[in-house]
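Following up on my earlier thread - several people asked me to post the actual chain instead of describing it. Fair enough. Here it is, all 107 residues.
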Amino acid sequence: MPAAQLLLAILVPLGIWAMVLAFVLAVLLAVNDGIQRLRRLHQVPCFRCRYYTGSPYLKCPVRPIDAASESALCCTDYEAAEPASLQSPRQPRLKKRLSLLFSTSHH
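Reply from S.P.:
Thanks for posting it. Predicted structure:
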């Protein structure tokens, strides 16, 4: 076997393994970055704020642009909501609709 073929027989598998390892490393770094971003977003206090509306159209009337984003981490207008108001305002209506749906479907 000539030296060039022997060199290719060694370099080609090494190159393939290097690409596979680079791909796996890139995926692991992307997953790690995603986890760190999620941890930051879970620290956003908007959902516990008294001004948070829960509406997809206007989440916060005080700071609508910053609401539920990373820039809300340092919100100076944050005020803790009372425990009773932390529940979704749409939840009772949903329960009522579901009870009506199931009560009429069995008749």
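The mean pLDDT is 85. That should answer part of your original question.
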